[in-house]
Design brief:
Layout (H helix, E strand, L loop, with lengths): L1 H6 L1 H8 L22 H8 L9 H24 L7 H14 L3 E4 L4 E6 L2 E6 L4 E2 L3 H5 L4 H10 L13 H7 L17 H4 L25 H16 L1
Antiparallel strand pairs: 1-2, 2-3, 3-4
Helix pairs in contact: 4-8, 5-7
């Protein structure tokens, strides 16, 4: 926080307006993973951009076809993987291996190891999956210190990853199939639904051409918010 204050005092004051447990993972009383964003929602929101001009049923058909293809491709990719974890996790672990080989490891017992990095000592507990750097327990993936201890014992690194990162969880995410709804003549609609009359909402069309893209004003305040978000990401 002192480093942030040196860069921008306003950012420091902005962060300190809220208690650290609301924006620092190490202070959070609950388990949180990385940043809380709406990226996946915004990505999905941009997919049917062109389909929004279609009638509601045609737009639903578009979404169904898109999801059907996504689930099929991702399920095949997961089934064809030779790793015990997802491809992303395997790549992340490979990135850490080279750094882990540069560390000094001193085993304490079957589970504990003392790992030295740049003159700093970290205690790794493979049984509890913890490290003094806290990255092991926060990300639920082995940090470079844990990987160094694991490699010395010649154990599979996937044994120390959260079950959410395993291949079986990856497969379970896309285990269901997305089927087409079929022709309207084949639909079985309950009478309670048929009897309902749904009218379109009242909407007054504003003058001028309809806006299809969101315009973010390049104001000073928005730039400051981006800077604050970047600092939060780097320092959380």
């Amino acid at each position: 926080m002192s480093d942030i204050a040196k860069v921008d005092k306003k950012t420091y004051d902005y962060l300190m307006e809220e208690p650290p447990e609301r924006w620092v993972r190490s202070c959070s009383p609950q388990r949180r993973y990385d940043m809380l964003t709406t990226n996946i929602v915004e990505s999905m929101n941009s997919v049917p951009l062109e389909a929004r001009e279609l009638p509601i049923l045609r737009m639903m058909d578009f979404i169904q076809v898109k999801l059907q293809r996504w689930f099929y491709e991702r399920r095949n990719k997961a089934e064809g993987s030779f790793y015990d974890v997802s491809c992303w996790v395997e790549d992340e672990l490979k990135k850490k291996i080279n750094l882990a080989f540069t560390l000094n490891v001193f085993p304490v017992d079957s589970w504990h190891s003392r790992v030295e990095e740049a003159g700093i000592t970290f205690l790794v507990d493979l049984n509890k999956r913890t490290c003094d750097c806290f990255q092991f327990q926060f990300d639920e993936l082995p940090c470079i210190h844990a990987i160094a201890a694991i490699e010395m014992r010649n154990i599979k690194k996937s044994n120390f990853c959260s079950h959410w990162y395993l291949k079986e969880s990856w497969l379970k995410t896309y285990e269901r199939q997305i089927y087409p709804v079929g022709h309207t003549d084949s639909w079985i609609v309950p009478e309670s639904v048929k009897s309902q009359i749904v009218k379109p909402p009242y909407f007054k069309v504003p003058p001028g051409r309809r806006q299809k893209k969101r315009h973010i004003p390049a104001t000073k305040s928005s730039k400051n918010n981006i800077q604050v978000w970047s600092l939060q990401k780097n320092w959380s």
